[in-house]
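agent> Task received from the user: take the single chain below, predict its 3D structure, and emit structure tokens. No templates, no multimer pairing.
agent> Plan: (1) validate residues, (2) run structure prediction, (3) serialize to tokens, (4) report one or two observations.
agent> Step 1 OK, no nonstandard residues flagged.
tool_call: predict_structure(input=
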Amino acid sequence: MKIRISMDGKGRATDNAHIERWFRTIKQKYVYLNPEKNGLDLYQGIARFVQHYNCRKHQGIGRRKPMNLYLNAA
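)
tool_result: status=success, residues=74
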């Protein structure tokens, strides 16, 4: 079976919008404000940021925590 990847169609311009917004958030809220000395410090800092981000209440999802939504859906 041959698989062809379609690069045309409705919504293709917005396919990556969510992940691009997420990376913009990481860069603006952590990376640019906390220049690290090496890759390990950067990795550990981003891990802390992601943990904090997922455990805080978000306005866009009714002041709920993303981690709770994920655990309830799983």
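agent> Step 4: summary for the user.
The chain has three helices and no strands.
agent> Done.
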